[in-house]
Design a protein that fits this description.
The chain is α/β, with parallel strands linked by helices and 221 residues long. It contains 7 helices and 9 strands, in the order E-H-E-E-H-H-E-E-E-H-E-H-E-E-H-H. The chain is globular, with a radius of gyration of 16 Å. The structure holds iron/sulfur cluster.
């Protein structure tokens, strides 16, 4: 486990974005195109899901076009959600039955899920400037969780944006699947993203993913 110095102060400037947030022009344009093409989809910045009083925050990359961008709930409606929610149910961080719909009644327990970038990016690839711009909302999400003790970062971009949101240097805590970084009272757990691409190519197996959450569960008790 790496231990990171936490001396830097992070200033929280805002809370949740407006549904028409204009701060990333490319993503706002992509959102407008999706609204025109699919008027019944959610098509707006996706807000975090779960308990702000929880001890665990999961940080993904960005909404999937036909997943959270369609349904309005993080990781809901695409393959990444199938693996994530099954794993959360297995380790007691969720209750109910995941049915890939925001009205399926699934409840997170002691846990919240958000993304490093709140709007769907073309090809699932946000630009560095978009990640930097949207970080203010990740900072706000973290600041609104007074009991937070653990963050699981899904993928390198989520890992690096979370470190910056915490005011930490990424060189002090390099991303590696299964790594745990200690930052003051917080632990940051790294996992490869649970995307279909990563599981299809064997980069991430369901067991590798479960092992990360088994560790979190053990540490949180
Ligand atoms: S990604 Fe974040 S900052 Fe950029 S437009 Fe969406 S909500 Fe606003």
């Amino acid at each position: 486990m790496t231990t990171i110095s936490t001396s830097k102060t992070v200033v929280v400037t805002t809370t949740d974005p407006d549904p028409n947030c204009p701060l990333c022009p490319r993503l706002a344009e992509f959102r407008a195109q999706s609204r025109a093409r699919e008027p019944d989809w959610f098509n707006a910045p996706v807000l975090p899901f779960g308990d702000p009083g929880g001890k665990l925050l999961i940080v993904g990359l960005a909404p999937g076009l036909k997943g959270a961008n369609r349904t309005g709930r993080p990781f809901t409606g695409d393959y990444a959600g199938d693996l994530l929610y099954a794993t959360l149910l297995e380790y007691g961080f969720a209750k109910g039955t995941y049915q890939a719909r925001p009205d399926d009644g699934l409840r997170l327990v002691d846990c919240r899920i958000g993304n490093a970038v709140r709007c769907v990016p073309p090809q699932n690839k946000p630009l560095p400037v978009e990640i930097n711009t949207c970080r203010q909302f990740l900072i706000a999400t973290i600041a609104a969780m007074p009991k937070l003790r653990a963050i699981v970062a899904l993928g390198r971009i989520a890992h690096e944006s979370t470190l910056k949101a915490l005011g930490l240097r990424s060189a002090a805590a390099p991303f590696a699947h299964g790594a745990v970084h200690k930052a003051g009272t917080l632990r940051l757990y790294d996992s490869y993203h649970c995307s279909r691409y990563n599981t299809n190519t064997g980069v991430l197996t369901p067991k590798m993913f479960r092992d990360v959450f088994a560790k979190v569960r053990k540490d949180l008790g």
